[in-house]
């Protein structure tokens, strides 16, 4: 299979906007373990969960963690949206978003991780390598002082289990989570940030409590499930006049809408002979912003209304794709239709 240049893939799927997107960095922000300090139990730096370790994932950004050294101080005001959240510790629990939960703190330091399911979820449980999309509120376990929440930002975020980008209490506490679940995690200091103070709010040896709403569990698909053919009739003659799509597999999950973040795999074919030119199935699923202005017109039109769990074949004429010139270096001749087969794994 010939591989397209990075530029072409960026143009097609807006990866520049989302491969290191705000959605991804938000996923690591509230609970990122980027100190490089060994965990008290295992000595590993930020990747110590025995149940979910070793995956590549979303632990690489460190730009706005309200509990990081560079953005987690109560008086730090230049760290963007998340920096503002550190000041949210002055607000009473439950302030802000209508569905932001109140937190019933233990009032004492837990001796071990305590995981309490407040609302039962449904579907398959999350496991190592899966992406768990959550909202959360975080407070000090001893007195309930809030240091951050995602509800007021209105931005759920994904956490990839086993990526090593979050504190051990989250890695372990989200293992087994199900979609729709609300869970409280009472986390001892050694599974949070340990002996080092992270801010004026998160002090040394600070136990933390989070209430987390699991919006979605995105399971890693089996690579053997990748499509091996377009699944639709190839273009003939002058090709198609307009973008067309066919659902090869009907989804049953949330419906993708403009402005959402989409988690997907794709295979990209020449529509005249069915030759595959590029596949994302060789790596981790892609996370992109589903924003019309950032996508090929044919993709924006063809993916609209997809439901999670669905597979859709989208046939795109040159004017809605890469233009009349095609991409000869990537194996796409001029004036040639293309077919994207898209598997929508998550949308939030």
User: Which H/E pattern describes the elements?
Assistant: HHHHEEEEHEEEEEEHEE
Overall geometric form: elongated
Q: Give the end-to-end Cα distance, rounded to a whole number of Å.
A: 32 Å
User: Treating each run of at least 4 consecutive H or I residues as one helix, how many helices?
Assistant: 6
Find the structural class using helix and strand composition.
alpha+beta
Instruction: Calculate Rg over CA atoms.
Output: 22 Å
Largest sheet: 6 strands, antiparallel
Find the count of extended strands (DSSP E, 2+ residues). Answer: 12
Instruction: Give the strand content.
Output: 15-25%
Low-confidence stretches: 2-11, 14-30, 34-95
Kindly describe this structure.
The protein is α+β, with helices and mostly antiparallel strands and 348 residues long. Helices cover 11% and strands 23% of the residues. The chain has helices spanning 6-13, 15-18, 22-28, 80-86, 168-174, 297-303; strands at residues 114-119, 131-140, 146-149, 157-160, 182-187, 208-218, 244-249, 261-270, 276-279, 286-289, 311-316, 338-347. Strands 1, 2, 3, 4, 5 and 6 form a 6-stranded antiparallel sheet that branches. The longest helix has 8 residues, at 6-13. The two termini are 32 Å apart.
């Amino acid at each position: 299979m010939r591989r397209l240049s990075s530029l072409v893939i960026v143009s097609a799927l807006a990866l520049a906007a989302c491969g290191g997107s705000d959605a991804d960095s938000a996923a690591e922000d509230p609970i990122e373990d980027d100190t490089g300090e060994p965990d008290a139990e295992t000595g590993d730096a930020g990747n110590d969960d025995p149940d979910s370790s070793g995956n590549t994932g979303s632990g690489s950004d460190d730009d706005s963690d309200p509990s990081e050294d560079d953005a987690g101080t109560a008086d730090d005001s230049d760290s963007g949206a998340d920096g503002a959240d550190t000041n949210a510790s002055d607000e009473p629990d439950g302030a802000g978003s209508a569905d932001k939960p109140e937190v019933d703190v233990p009032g004492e330091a837990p001796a071990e991780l305590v995981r309490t399911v407040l609302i039962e979820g449904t579907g398959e449980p999350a496991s190592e390598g899966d992406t768990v999309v959550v909202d959360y509120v975080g407070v000090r376990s001893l007195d309930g002082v809030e240091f951050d929440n995602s509800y007021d930002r209105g931005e759920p975020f994904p956490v990839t289990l086993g990526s090593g980008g979050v504190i051990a209490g989250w890695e372990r506490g989200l293992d087994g989570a199900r979609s729709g679940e609300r869970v409280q995690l009472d986390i001892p200091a050694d599974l949070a940030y340990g002996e080092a103070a992270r801010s004026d709010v998160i002090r040394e040896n600070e136990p933390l409590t989070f209430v987390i709403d699991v919006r979605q569990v995105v399971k890693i698909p089996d690579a053997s499930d990748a499509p091996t053919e377009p699944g639709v009739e190839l273009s003939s003659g002058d090709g198609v006049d307009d973008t067309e799509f066919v659902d090869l597999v009907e989804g049953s999950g949330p419906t993708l809408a403009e402005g959402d973040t989409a988690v997907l795999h794709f295979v990209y074919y020449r529509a005249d002979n069915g030759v595959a030119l590029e596949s994302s199935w060789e790596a981790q699923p892609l996370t992109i912003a589903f924003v019309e202005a950032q996508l090929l017109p044919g993709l924006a039109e063809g993916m609209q209304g997809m439901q999670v769990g669905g597979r859709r074949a989208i046939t795109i004429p040159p004017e809605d794709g890469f233009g009349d010139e095609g991409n000869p270096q990537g194996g796409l001749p001029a004036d040639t239709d293309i077919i994207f087969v898209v598997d929508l794994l998550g949308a939030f």
